[in-house]
Amino acid sequence: MSGLVTSVSRSAGHTFSKPVSDGVRLLAGLGVEGDAHMGETVKHRSRVARDPSRPNLRQVHLIHAELHDELAQAGLEVSAGQMGENITTRGVDLLGLSAGALLRIGGQAVVRVTGLRNPCVQLDDFMPGLMAAVLDRDEHGHVVRKAGVMGVVVTGGEVRPGDEVLVVPPQGPHVPLAPV
Description:
The protein is an alpha+beta fold. It has one domain (2-168): Beta Barrel (M1 Pyruvate Kinase, Domain 3). The protein is built from four helices and 13 strands. The protein has a seven-stranded mixed beta barrel with strand order 1-6-5-11-8-7-13. A three-stranded antiparallel beta sheet has the order 4-3-12, with no helix packed on it. Strands 9-10 form a two-stranded antiparallel sheet. Strand 9 and strand 10 (143-145) form a beta hairpin. The longest helix has 9 residues, at 65-73.
């Protein structure tokens, strides 16, 4: 499976939305250079408050542009970076990936998918109704989180809009993504 990067974003501060950029540099084991969530240990404020020594499994946040399309159809106009993602993709079923899948992005960068973003109330602070719009239920009544996936940087490199995203599934059985 492959797709494309449609946008990249970063923010040096702990802001909900991240400004769109011409490119970002991923740093192995750390995340997006210049982003507030970069680091070996957790940087999201709620997680730091619980245990600042935990490994940062949320170095890079990716959202599929198809979610923006779906939200627009529901009357919620959200653009790249506004939900805090670092990389927006098109053509990759991010939510259907197996835990541990590798995303080869552009010429060098590799991100290992660690899990799902767990939507929080900040979504409704940004735009009323957004939280409900990124949650769904499957045919068995289980919650489906649609606000993207999180990952860690395995190999650093530059990432720009137009870069190819190639999915490399992990060896072994498919492991559904869980919130991280």
